[in-house]
Specification:
By secondary structure, the protein is an alpha/beta fold. It has helices at 6-9, 23-35, 51-63, 69-75, 79-86, 104-111, 130-148, 192-207, 214-231, 237-252, 285-293, 312-325, 347-360, 382-406, 412-432, 452-463, 479-494, and strands at 14-17, 41-47, 87-92, 116-119, 156-160, 172-173, 258-263, 265-267, 299-300, 309-311, 332-337, 378-379, 448-449. The relative contact order is 0.12. The model is unreliable at 438-445 (pLDDT under 50). It catalyses: a long-chain fatty acyl-CoA + 2 NADPH + 2 H(+) = a long-chain primary fatty alcohol + 2 NADP(+) + CoA.
């Protein structure tokens, strides 16, 4: 793998970025502007009805964030003019043809100017409605690729996916592309068009029902997504539709250079532009938030299993290196951005760091009293965890049902509310459990995401001394120091407020 210096390669380039108000895209934009101020233009697709609304949303949700303080300090009074010159907010939506960009002149300008497309936009909700997931993760990917193919100067298309498209496969998970219609369950064939038609048909059927409501449609679509995902071998709607998105861009690319990046669990920044920046509740952050607030009754995982996480700035460094390395190379490349092979970290590290941190830095409730810190019971076996849930939640719920019956449904409202919450809790457990276990009941041995392709890319960056500016080697991370001094404080500051 040979390529010139990364920073120089970005000079005078025009880049289209979808999902621009999301966590990863913001990091990407900030990094490019910080290391290469001579980049020509960043077209940021923003879901909005018009240019004014897009610019306002971009300003409020991206530029004004603390993330851009380093750039503000660097450019001083010229910051606003620099941003105005380099960033163009484009109103649109990936679920529509031509990305929903209605301005014909703007479309023509973009098609004649764009060199790189970075497709980040996605819904990452595990329990999202199937119709919404198909629109964003599948049809959106298709629309992004079709738009890119109209760009006369295009050098590369980068599609950001997830490592968990591999589902519940065992062993060393390779950086391998999906074939057309490939599934994770035997010889079954996945017809994406048929899935889209299935959703349309089901929604029409719901409209014909007398008792159909928006809530009924919402629940039906959510359940349909889980049902179809598991039918083909995927654990949830999110990873199922992301896998379909990969298949589509692979089929549609023609001779276009395509890079598919599959990060694992993305966490707060390690170093850049400063340590600990994060937005939104990521998968493991729910554990930290619950523990901090004293609302985490227990935790289920094999704490000696690897927890594959990677800081957001390392992911962005890898993405930038990928688009430079594969510009104008007419092939498809797959990359895992992970830590489980090179520097695995166990769940026990997170548990220990959390206990140490909150012992030294206790939180206080709304009443001003210190939240008492208690060791959270960790269940290594799913069967034992289910027994705990049975005793802690199901039995009291069943007792309430009996009491409700005796007292002529006096407590029906309370019972129905708690019953819904319990069922939802059990559903969440089924959805999230594969990400807490990598052996034991889930698999007889550890699972790792192979990153051989990424290692080759790392070696190539070293030849040009780019590895200092674009560090994406997890071996450089001291996980204990990272979680204790960077990630946990970052979650408390930016997620818990």
């Amino acid at each position: 793998m040979e390529f010139g210096g990364i920073v120089h390669a970005l000079e005078d380039k025009s880049i289209l970025i979808t999902g621009s108000t999301g966590f990863l895209a913001k990091l990407f934009v900030e990094k490019v502007l910080r290391i290469q101020p001579k980049v020509k233009r960043l077209y940021l697709l923003v879901r909005a009805s018009d240019t004014k609304s897009a610019e306002k949303r971009l300003q409020n949700e991206v530029i004004e964030k603390e993330l851009f303080d380093c750039l503000r300090k660097k450019h001083g009074k010229e910051f606003h003019s620099f941003i105005t010159e380099k960033i163009c907010a484009i109103p649109g939506d990936i679920i529509h043809e031509n990305l929903g960009i209605e301005d014909i002149n703007m479309r023509e300008l973009m098609w004649n100017d764009i060199n790189m497309v970075i497709h980040v936009a996605a819904t990452t909700n595990f329990y999202v409605r199937y119709d919404i997931a198909l629109n964003i993760n599948v049809i959106g990917a298709k629309n992004a690729m079709n738009f890119a193919k109209k760009c006369s100067k295009l050098e590369v298309f980068l599609h950001v996916s997830t490592a968990y498209v591999t589902g519940e496969k065992e062993g060393l998970l390779l950086e391998k592309a999906f074939g057309k219609g490939e599934t994770l369950k035997g010889n079954m064939y996945l017809d994406i068009d048929a899935e889209i038609k299935l959703v349309e048909r089901r929604k029409k059927e719901l409209l014909q029902l007398d008792n159909s409501t928006m809530d009924v449609e919402k629940m039906t679509m959510k359940e349909l997504g889980i049902e179809r995902a598991r039918h083909f071998g995927w654990p949830n709607t999110y990873v199922f539709t992301k896998a379909m998105g990969e298949m589509l861009v692979g089929q549609l690319r023609g001779s276009l250079p395509l890079v598919i990046a599959r990060p694992t669990i993305i966490t707060s920044t390690w170093k850049e532009p400063f340590p600990g920046w994060i937005e939104g509740n990521r998968t493991i952050d729910n554990i930290i938030v619950g523990y901090a607030k004293g609302t985490l009754p227990c935790f289920v995982a094999d704490i000696e299993s690897p927890m594959d996480v990677i800081p957001g700035d390392m992911v962005v460094n890898a993405l930038i290196a990928m688009v430079v390395a594969h510009s104008n190379q007419q092939a498809e490349f797959i990359y895992h951005i992970s830590s489980s092979v090179r520097n695995p970290v166990k769940y026990s590290i997170l548990e220990q760091c959390g206990y140490r941190y909150f012992s030294k830095n206790p939180l206080f409730g709304k009443n001003g009293k210190e939240i008492s810190l208690q060791k959270v019971p960790v269940f290594k076996k799913l069967a034992i965890f289910r027994i705990f849930l049975f005793i802690r939640y199901w039995l009291p719920l069943e007792m309430l049902r009996v009491v409700n019956t005796i007292f002529c449904c006096l407590f029906s409202k309370k019972y129905n509310e708690l019953s819904r919450k319990y069922k939802f809790l059990m559903l969440l457990i089924d959805l999230y459990i594969p990400y807490c276990f990598f052996k034991g009941w889930y698999a007889p041995f550890d699972l790792f995401f192979d990153d051989a392709n990424l290692e080759k890319l790392r070696m190539a960056t070293k030849k040009h001394n780019d590895n200092q500016i674009f560090d994406f080697d997890p071996k450089n991370i001291d996980w204990d120091e990272y979680f204790y001094n960077i990630h946990i404080p970052g979650v408390l500051k930016y997620v818990c407020n």
